[in-house]
Amino acid sequence: MEDLTTGSITRHLLKTTSFMLVTMVFQTLYFLVDLYWVGRLGKEAIAGVGIAGNLTFIVLAITQMLAVGTTTLISHAAGRKAREEAQHVLTQSLLLTVFIGGIFMIVVTALRDTYVNTLSPDPVSAAAATSYLSWFIPAMALQFPMVVMGAALRGTGNFKPGMVVQTATVIINIVLAPALMFGRLGTQPMGVAGAGLASLVAIVVGTIWLAVYFFDAASYLKLHPHFRPHAGMWAKVLKIGLPAGVEFAFIAVYLFVVYTVSRPFGAAAQAGFGIGQRIIQASFMPVVALGFAVAPVAGQNFGAHKAARVRETFKRALLMVAGLTAVVTVLCLLLDEAMIRFFSSDPSVIAVGAQYLRIIAWGTIASGIVYVNGSMFQAMGNTFPPLLASFTRILVVAIPVMLMSRMPGFELRWVWYLSVAATLLQVAMNLMLLRREFRIRLAF
Known about the structure:
mainly alpha; globular
Protein backbone atom coordinates (compact mmCIF):
# COMPACT_ATOMS: atom_id res chain seq x y z
CA MET A 1 0.00 0.00 0.00
CA GLU A 2 1.10 3.59 -0.67
CA ASP A 3 -0.13 6.37 1.61
CA LEU A 4 -1.53 9.12 -0.64
CA THR A 5 -2.70 11.35 2.23
CA THR A 6 0.70 12.97 2.69
CA GLY A 7 3.32 14.42 0.35
CA SER A 8 3.03 16.25 -2.96
CA ILE A 9 -0.31 15.75 -4.69
CA THR A 10 1.21 16.53 -8.07
CA ARG A 11 3.88 13.88 -7.50
CA HIS A 12 1.26 11.33 -6.49
CA LEU A 13 -0.82 12.09 -9.59
CA LEU A 14 2.16 11.95 -11.93
CA LYS A 15 3.48 8.73 -10.40
CA THR A 16 0.17 6.89 -10.42
CA THR A 17 -0.72 8.27 -13.86
CA SER A 18 2.63 7.13 -15.25
CA PHE A 19 1.98 3.54 -14.14
CA MET A 20 -1.43 3.59 -15.78
CA LEU A 21 -0.09 5.40 -18.83
CA VAL A 22 2.38 2.62 -19.57
CA THR A 23 -0.56 0.22 -19.61
CA MET A 24 -2.63 2.61 -21.70
CA VAL A 25 0.16 3.11 -24.24
CA PHE A 26 0.38 -0.63 -24.79
CA GLN A 27 -3.43 -0.83 -24.85
CA THR A 28 -3.50 1.95 -27.45
CA LEU A 29 -0.87 0.13 -29.46
CA TYR A 30 -3.01 -2.99 -29.33
CA PHE A 31 -6.09 -1.10 -30.56
CA LEU A 32 -4.16 0.36 -33.47
CA VAL A 33 -2.29 -2.84 -34.41
CA ASP A 34 -5.48 -4.89 -34.16
CA LEU A 35 -7.30 -2.36 -36.34
CA TYR A 36 -4.42 -2.39 -38.83
CA TRP A 37 -4.50 -6.18 -39.28
CA VAL A 38 -8.29 -6.36 -39.42
CA GLY A 39 -8.17 -3.61 -42.03
CA ARG A 40 -6.13 -5.92 -44.28
CA LEU A 41 -9.22 -8.16 -44.47
CA GLY A 42 -11.42 -5.42 -45.98
CA LYS A 43 -14.04 -2.87 -44.94
CA GLU A 44 -16.61 -5.59 -44.14
CA ALA A 45 -14.20 -7.07 -41.59
CA ILE A 46 -13.65 -3.62 -40.04
CA ALA A 47 -17.40 -3.04 -39.87
CA GLY A 48 -18.01 -6.52 -38.40
CA VAL A 49 -15.36 -6.22 -35.69
CA GLY A 50 -16.58 -2.69 -34.97
CA ILE A 51 -20.13 -3.96 -34.43
CA ALA A 52 -18.87 -6.78 -32.22
CA GLY A 53 -16.54 -4.41 -30.41
CA ASN A 54 -19.45 -2.21 -29.37
CA LEU A 55 -20.24 -4.87 -26.77
CA THR A 56 -17.00 -3.91 -25.03
CA PHE A 57 -18.75 -0.73 -23.93
CA ILE A 58 -21.31 -2.85 -22.11
CA VAL A 59 -18.41 -4.72 -20.50
CA LEU A 60 -16.81 -1.39 -19.64
CA ALA A 61 -20.09 -0.22 -18.15
CA ILE A 62 -20.45 -3.25 -15.90
CA THR A 63 -16.77 -3.50 -14.95
CA GLN A 64 -16.71 0.27 -14.35
CA MET A 65 -19.60 -0.21 -11.95
CA LEU A 66 -17.70 -2.91 -10.05
CA ALA A 67 -14.31 -1.21 -10.27
CA VAL A 68 -15.53 2.21 -9.10
CA GLY A 69 -17.30 0.77 -6.08
CA THR A 70 -14.29 -1.38 -5.23
CA THR A 71 -11.67 1.36 -5.64
CA THR A 72 -13.72 3.91 -3.71
CA LEU A 73 -14.46 1.69 -0.71
CA ILE A 74 -10.91 0.32 -0.52
CA SER A 75 -9.35 3.79 -0.87
CA HIS A 76 -11.58 5.09 1.94
CA ALA A 77 -10.59 2.12 4.12
CA ALA A 78 -6.91 2.62 3.26
CA GLY A 79 -7.20 6.32 4.15
CA ARG A 80 -8.57 5.30 7.56
CA LYS A 81 -5.84 2.61 7.87
CA ALA A 82 -8.55 -0.08 8.15
CA ARG A 83 -6.83 -3.07 6.45
CA GLU A 84 -9.35 -5.75 7.42
CA GLU A 85 -12.20 -3.68 5.99
CA ALA A 86 -10.28 -3.29 2.72
CA GLN A 87 -9.81 -7.07 2.51
CA HIS A 88 -13.52 -7.61 3.13
CA VAL A 89 -14.36 -5.24 0.26
CA LEU A 90 -11.96 -7.13 -2.05
CA THR A 91 -13.48 -10.52 -1.26
CA GLN A 92 -17.08 -9.40 -1.68
CA SER A 93 -16.30 -7.51 -4.90
CA LEU A 94 -14.77 -10.63 -6.43
CA LEU A 95 -17.78 -12.75 -5.47
CA LEU A 96 -20.08 -10.15 -6.97
CA THR A 97 -18.07 -9.87 -10.19
CA VAL A 98 -18.03 -13.66 -10.76
CA PHE A 99 -21.81 -13.72 -10.34
CA ILE A 100 -22.44 -10.81 -12.72
CA GLY A 101 -19.82 -11.98 -15.23
CA GLY A 102 -21.50 -15.38 -15.48
CA ILE A 103 -24.87 -13.80 -16.18
CA PHE A 104 -23.30 -11.54 -18.82
CA MET A 105 -21.77 -14.47 -20.71
CA ILE A 106 -25.03 -16.44 -20.76
CA VAL A 107 -27.17 -13.50 -21.93
CA VAL A 108 -24.78 -12.21 -24.60
CA THR A 109 -24.22 -15.68 -26.03
CA ALA A 110 -27.99 -16.20 -26.32
CA LEU A 111 -28.56 -12.81 -28.02
CA ARG A 112 -25.45 -12.78 -30.21
CA ASP A 113 -27.06 -13.52 -33.57
CA THR A 114 -29.97 -11.14 -33.01
CA TYR A 115 -27.59 -8.32 -32.08
CA VAL A 116 -25.30 -8.89 -35.06
CA ASN A 117 -28.11 -9.15 -37.63
CA THR A 118 -29.77 -5.99 -36.31
CA LEU A 119 -26.70 -3.76 -36.78
CA SER A 120 -24.86 -5.32 -39.74
CA PRO A 121 -25.18 -3.52 -43.09
CA ASP A 122 -24.63 -6.73 -45.11
CA PRO A 123 -24.22 -10.51 -44.67
CA VAL A 124 -20.41 -10.40 -45.00
CA SER A 125 -20.08 -7.93 -42.13
CA ALA A 126 -22.53 -10.01 -40.07
CA ALA A 127 -20.47 -13.16 -40.64
CA ALA A 128 -17.30 -11.37 -39.54
CA ALA A 129 -18.96 -10.09 -36.37
CA THR A 130 -20.34 -13.54 -35.49
CA SER A 131 -16.99 -15.23 -36.08
CA TYR A 132 -15.16 -12.70 -33.91
CA LEU A 133 -17.67 -12.93 -31.07
CA SER A 134 -17.41 -16.71 -30.86
CA TRP A 135 -14.10 -16.24 -29.05
CA PHE A 136 -14.45 -12.68 -27.82
CA ILE A 137 -17.55 -13.25 -25.64
CA PRO A 138 -15.72 -15.53 -23.15
CA ALA A 139 -12.78 -13.11 -23.28
CA MET A 140 -15.09 -10.26 -22.24
CA ALA A 141 -16.55 -12.33 -19.40
CA LEU A 142 -13.06 -13.04 -18.01
CA GLN A 143 -12.29 -9.32 -17.94
CA PHE A 144 -14.69 -8.91 -15.01
CA PRO A 145 -12.52 -10.45 -12.26
CA MET A 146 -9.31 -9.09 -13.80
CA VAL A 147 -10.61 -5.51 -13.77
CA VAL A 148 -11.85 -5.77 -10.18
CA MET A 149 -8.51 -7.12 -8.95
CA GLY A 150 -6.71 -4.21 -10.60
CA ALA A 151 -9.23 -1.76 -9.13
CA ALA A 152 -8.66 -3.13 -5.63
CA LEU A 153 -4.91 -2.61 -5.95
CA ARG A 154 -5.41 0.95 -7.23
CA GLY A 155 -7.49 1.73 -4.15
CA THR A 156 -4.41 1.07 -2.02
CA GLY A 157 -2.25 3.24 -4.30
CA ASN A 158 -0.49 0.20 -5.79
CA PHE A 159 -0.60 0.51 -9.58
CA LYS A 160 2.46 -1.54 -10.50
CA PRO A 161 1.06 -5.12 -10.53
CA GLY A 162 -1.87 -4.10 -12.74
CA MET A 163 0.49 -2.25 -15.07
CA VAL A 164 2.82 -5.25 -15.47
CA VAL A 165 0.05 -7.79 -16.01
CA GLN A 166 -2.04 -5.69 -18.40
CA THR A 167 1.03 -4.70 -20.42
CA ALA A 168 1.96 -8.36 -20.75
CA THR A 169 -1.54 -9.31 -21.93
CA VAL A 170 -1.44 -6.59 -24.58
CA ILE A 171 1.93 -7.81 -25.86
CA ILE A 172 0.58 -11.37 -26.05
CA ASN A 173 -2.41 -10.10 -28.00
CA ILE A 174 -0.33 -8.02 -30.40
CA VAL A 175 1.93 -10.97 -31.23
CA LEU A 176 -0.73 -13.68 -31.32
CA ALA A 177 -3.53 -11.91 -33.23
CA PRO A 178 -1.87 -11.63 -36.69
CA ALA A 179 -0.33 -15.09 -36.28
CA LEU A 180 -3.77 -16.66 -35.80
CA MET A 181 -5.56 -14.42 -38.30
CA PHE A 182 -3.19 -15.24 -41.18
CA GLY A 183 -2.09 -18.76 -40.21
CA ARG A 184 1.52 -17.89 -39.34
CA LEU A 185 1.72 -20.66 -36.76
CA GLY A 186 1.30 -23.36 -39.38
CA THR A 187 -2.45 -23.51 -38.76
CA GLN A 188 -5.39 -22.64 -40.98
CA PRO A 189 -5.90 -18.84 -41.23
CA MET A 190 -8.74 -17.89 -38.87
CA GLY A 191 -9.48 -14.37 -40.16
CA VAL A 192 -11.21 -12.12 -37.64
CA ALA A 193 -11.85 -15.12 -35.38
CA GLY A 194 -8.09 -15.21 -34.78
CA ALA A 195 -8.22 -11.74 -33.27
CA GLY A 196 -10.96 -12.89 -30.89
CA LEU A 197 -9.04 -16.03 -29.87
CA ALA A 198 -5.88 -13.98 -29.25
CA SER A 199 -7.82 -11.75 -26.86
CA LEU A 200 -9.15 -14.78 -24.99
CA VAL A 201 -5.70 -16.34 -24.54
CA ALA A 202 -4.21 -13.03 -23.34
CA ILE A 203 -6.97 -12.42 -20.78
CA VAL A 204 -6.75 -15.98 -19.40
CA VAL A 205 -3.03 -15.44 -18.78
CA GLY A 206 -3.63 -12.01 -17.23
CA THR A 207 -6.40 -13.16 -14.89
CA ILE A 208 -4.35 -16.04 -13.48
CA TRP A 209 -1.24 -13.87 -13.17
CA LEU A 210 -3.01 -11.05 -11.31
CA ALA A 211 -4.76 -13.47 -8.96
CA VAL A 212 -1.40 -14.84 -7.81
CA TYR A 213 -0.55 -11.44 -6.29
CA PHE A 214 -3.24 -11.74 -3.62
CA PHE A 215 -1.71 -14.96 -2.30
CA ASP A 216 1.68 -13.32 -1.72
CA ALA A 217 2.61 -13.21 1.98
CA ALA A 218 3.68 -9.56 1.69
CA SER A 219 0.46 -8.40 0.00
CA TYR A 220 -1.57 -5.71 1.80
CA LEU A 221 -4.75 -7.14 0.29
CA LYS A 222 -5.72 -10.76 0.78
CA LEU A 223 -8.99 -12.63 0.45
CA HIS A 224 -11.08 -12.36 3.61
CA PRO A 225 -11.43 -15.71 5.44
CA HIS A 226 -15.25 -15.45 5.43
CA PHE A 227 -15.62 -16.25 1.74
CA ARG A 228 -19.39 -16.09 1.34
CA PRO A 229 -21.71 -13.47 -0.17
CA HIS A 230 -22.52 -10.47 2.02
CA ALA A 231 -25.59 -8.60 0.76
CA GLY A 232 -24.74 -5.45 2.69
CA MET A 233 -21.31 -5.08 1.11
CA TRP A 234 -22.64 -5.92 -2.36
CA ALA A 235 -25.18 -3.12 -1.88
CA LYS A 236 -22.42 -0.66 -0.92
CA VAL A 237 -20.36 -1.52 -3.99
CA LEU A 238 -23.35 -1.22 -6.30
CA LYS A 239 -24.63 2.01 -4.71
CA ILE A 240 -21.37 3.75 -5.58
CA GLY A 241 -20.59 1.90 -8.79
CA LEU A 242 -23.98 1.54 -10.47
CA PRO A 243 -24.35 5.18 -11.58
CA ALA A 244 -20.83 5.12 -13.02
CA GLY A 245 -21.65 1.89 -14.86
CA VAL A 246 -24.84 3.36 -16.28
CA GLU A 247 -22.78 6.30 -17.56
CA PHE A 248 -20.66 3.90 -19.59
CA ALA A 249 -23.81 2.12 -20.75
CA PHE A 250 -24.89 5.44 -22.24
CA ILE A 251 -21.85 5.21 -24.50
CA ALA A 252 -23.16 1.88 -25.77
CA VAL A 253 -26.55 3.53 -26.37
CA TYR A 254 -24.85 6.31 -28.33
CA LEU A 255 -22.95 3.79 -30.46
CA PHE A 256 -26.10 1.77 -31.05
CA VAL A 257 -27.85 4.94 -32.27
CA VAL A 258 -24.95 5.86 -34.56
CA TYR A 259 -24.69 2.38 -36.10
CA THR A 260 -28.45 2.28 -36.56
CA VAL A 261 -28.70 5.61 -38.39
CA SER A 262 -25.50 4.92 -40.38
CA ARG A 263 -26.69 1.53 -41.59
CA PRO A 264 -28.33 2.93 -44.75
CA PHE A 265 -25.01 4.58 -45.67
CA GLY A 266 -23.34 1.15 -45.96
CA ALA A 267 -20.24 -0.60 -44.63
CA ALA A 268 -17.91 2.24 -45.67
CA ALA A 269 -19.70 4.73 -43.39
CA GLN A 270 -19.69 2.33 -40.45
CA ALA A 271 -16.02 1.47 -41.05
CA GLY A 272 -15.09 5.17 -41.22
CA PHE A 273 -16.88 5.90 -37.97
CA GLY A 274 -15.40 2.78 -36.38
CA ILE A 275 -11.84 3.80 -37.27
CA GLY A 276 -12.41 7.41 -36.15
CA GLN A 277 -13.94 6.29 -32.88
CA ARG A 278 -11.03 3.91 -32.23
CA ILE A 279 -8.55 6.75 -32.86
CA ILE A 280 -10.35 9.02 -30.39
CA GLN A 281 -10.52 6.17 -27.89
CA ALA A 282 -6.80 5.50 -28.29
CA SER A 283 -5.82 9.18 -28.01
CA PHE A 284 -7.84 9.47 -24.78
CA MET A 285 -5.85 6.76 -23.02
CA PRO A 286 -3.66 9.32 -21.16
CA VAL A 287 -6.84 11.01 -19.96
CA VAL A 288 -8.20 7.67 -18.79
CA ALA A 289 -4.90 7.00 -17.01
CA LEU A 290 -5.18 10.35 -15.21
CA GLY A 291 -8.76 9.55 -14.21
CA PHE A 292 -7.64 6.24 -12.73
CA ALA A 293 -5.02 8.16 -10.72
CA VAL A 294 -7.38 10.89 -9.50
CA ALA A 295 -9.91 8.54 -7.86
CA PRO A 296 -7.58 6.81 -5.36
CA VAL A 297 -5.57 9.96 -4.59
CA ALA A 298 -8.70 11.99 -3.84
CA GLY A 299 -10.40 8.94 -2.31
CA GLN A 300 -7.74 8.26 0.30
CA ASN A 301 -7.68 11.94 1.28
CA PHE A 302 -11.46 11.97 1.48
CA GLY A 303 -11.34 8.93 3.75
CA ALA A 304 -8.76 10.73 5.90
CA HIS A 305 -11.01 13.87 6.04
CA LYS A 306 -8.44 16.10 4.34
CA ALA A 307 -10.71 18.45 2.38
CA ALA A 308 -7.99 20.83 1.19
CA ARG A 309 -6.05 17.98 -0.43
CA VAL A 310 -9.20 16.70 -2.15
CA ARG A 311 -9.77 20.14 -3.71
CA GLU A 312 -6.11 20.45 -4.68
CA THR A 313 -6.25 17.04 -6.40
CA PHE A 314 -9.05 18.31 -8.65
CA LYS A 315 -7.23 21.55 -9.54
CA ARG A 316 -4.02 19.77 -10.46
CA ALA A 317 -5.83 17.12 -12.48
CA LEU A 318 -7.84 19.78 -14.33
CA LEU A 319 -4.67 21.51 -15.54
CA MET A 320 -3.19 18.20 -16.65
CA VAL A 321 -6.25 17.05 -18.56
CA ALA A 322 -6.61 20.40 -20.34
CA GLY A 323 -3.08 20.08 -21.68
CA LEU A 324 -3.53 16.47 -22.76
CA THR A 325 -6.80 17.04 -24.61
CA ALA A 326 -5.53 20.19 -26.31
CA VAL A 327 -2.92 18.02 -28.03
CA VAL A 328 -5.64 15.58 -29.14
CA THR A 329 -7.66 18.47 -30.61
CA VAL A 330 -4.74 19.74 -32.68
CA LEU A 331 -3.86 16.27 -33.99
CA CYS A 332 -7.45 15.56 -35.06
CA LEU A 333 -7.70 18.88 -36.89
CA LEU A 334 -4.35 18.67 -38.68
CA LEU A 335 -3.89 14.94 -39.32
CA ASP A 336 -7.48 13.77 -39.78
CA GLU A 337 -7.16 12.15 -43.21
CA ALA A 338 -3.64 10.85 -42.58
CA MET A 339 -4.72 8.97 -39.45
CA ILE A 340 -7.71 7.36 -41.18
CA ARG A 341 -5.70 6.53 -44.30
CA PHE A 342 -3.23 4.53 -42.21
CA PHE A 343 -6.00 2.01 -41.50
CA SER A 344 -7.91 2.05 -44.77
CA SER A 345 -7.24 3.05 -48.37
CA ASP A 346 -10.95 3.17 -49.30
CA PRO A 347 -11.79 6.82 -50.23
CA SER A 348 -15.32 6.60 -48.84
CA VAL A 349 -14.07 5.23 -45.52
CA ILE A 350 -11.44 7.98 -45.31
CA ALA A 351 -14.01 10.69 -46.06
CA VAL A 352 -16.37 9.62 -43.27
CA GLY A 353 -13.62 9.02 -40.72
CA ALA A 354 -11.78 12.28 -41.40
CA GLN A 355 -14.97 14.32 -41.16
CA TYR A 356 -15.78 12.65 -37.85
CA LEU A 357 -12.36 13.54 -36.40
CA ARG A 358 -12.48 17.17 -37.57
CA ILE A 359 -15.83 17.80 -35.92
CA ILE A 360 -15.45 15.73 -32.75
CA ALA A 361 -12.08 17.43 -32.11
CA TRP A 362 -13.87 20.54 -30.83
CA GLY A 363 -15.34 18.60 -27.91
CA THR A 364 -12.24 16.74 -26.72
CA ILE A 365 -11.20 19.25 -24.03
CA ALA A 366 -14.72 19.26 -22.59
CA SER A 367 -14.76 15.44 -22.65
CA GLY A 368 -11.50 15.33 -20.71
CA ILE A 369 -12.86 17.66 -18.04
CA VAL A 370 -15.99 15.51 -17.76
CA TYR A 371 -13.80 12.47 -17.16
CA VAL A 372 -11.82 14.13 -14.32
CA ASN A 373 -15.06 15.42 -12.77
CA GLY A 374 -16.43 11.90 -12.77
CA SER A 375 -13.33 10.61 -10.99
CA MET A 376 -13.77 13.25 -8.27
CA PHE A 377 -17.37 12.19 -7.67
CA GLN A 378 -16.20 8.57 -7.49
CA ALA A 379 -13.57 9.51 -4.91
CA MET A 380 -16.24 11.07 -2.68
CA GLY A 381 -18.55 8.08 -3.02
CA ASN A 382 -21.43 9.88 -4.79
CA THR A 383 -21.70 9.02 -8.48
CA PHE A 384 -25.31 10.10 -9.08
CA PRO A 385 -24.66 13.77 -10.08
CA PRO A 386 -22.47 12.93 -13.12
CA LEU A 387 -25.04 10.29 -14.11
CA LEU A 388 -27.65 13.05 -14.33
CA ALA A 389 -25.39 15.08 -16.62
CA SER A 390 -24.67 12.03 -18.80
CA PHE A 391 -28.36 11.20 -19.05
CA THR A 392 -29.06 14.75 -20.20
CA ARG A 393 -26.32 14.44 -22.83
CA ILE A 394 -27.64 11.17 -24.25
CA LEU A 395 -31.17 12.60 -24.45
CA VAL A 396 -29.89 15.65 -26.32
CA VAL A 397 -28.19 13.38 -28.84
CA ALA A 398 -30.25 10.19 -29.19
CA ILE A 399 -33.79 11.53 -29.61
CA PRO A 400 -32.99 14.32 -32.13
CA VAL A 401 -30.70 12.00 -34.13
CA MET A 402 -33.37 9.32 -34.47
CA LEU A 403 -35.84 11.98 -35.62
CA MET A 404 -33.39 13.67 -38.02
CA SER A 405 -32.45 10.33 -39.59
CA ARG A 406 -35.95 10.20 -41.06
CA MET A 407 -35.54 13.58 -42.76
CA PRO A 408 -34.68 13.86 -46.47
CA GLY A 409 -31.01 14.72 -47.00
CA PHE A 410 -29.91 13.48 -43.58
CA GLU A 411 -26.12 13.45 -43.17
CA LEU A 412 -23.93 11.81 -40.55
CA ARG A 413 -22.12 15.06 -39.82
CA TRP A 414 -25.30 16.30 -38.15
CA VAL A 415 -24.74 13.61 -35.53
CA TRP A 416 -21.16 14.74 -34.90
CA TYR A 417 -22.12 18.41 -34.48
CA LEU A 418 -24.91 17.50 -32.08
CA SER A 419 -22.52 15.28 -30.11
CA VAL A 420 -20.11 18.18 -29.56
CA ALA A 421 -22.92 20.50 -28.43
CA ALA A 422 -24.19 17.87 -25.99
CA THR A 423 -20.70 17.39 -24.53
CA LEU A 424 -20.39 21.14 -23.86
CA LEU A 425 -23.72 21.05 -22.05
CA GLN A 426 -22.57 18.04 -20.03
CA VAL A 427 -19.33 19.66 -18.86
CA ALA A 428 -21.21 22.78 -17.73
CA MET A 429 -23.61 20.66 -15.68
CA ASN A 430 -20.78 18.60 -14.21
CA LEU A 431 -18.83 21.64 -13.02
CA MET A 432 -21.88 23.13 -11.31
CA LEU A 433 -22.73 19.82 -9.64
CA LEU A 434 -19.14 19.26 -8.48
CA ARG A 435 -19.01 22.71 -6.90
CA ARG A 436 -22.15 21.84 -4.95
CA GLU A 437 -20.72 18.46 -3.97
CA PHE A 438 -17.55 20.05 -2.61
CA ARG A 439 -19.60 22.41 -0.47
CA ILE A 440 -21.66 19.57 1.02
CA ARG A 441 -19.31 16.57 1.21
CA LEU A 442 -16.11 18.35 2.26
CA ALA A 443 -17.63 20.04 5.34
CA PHE A 444 -15.77 17.75 7.75
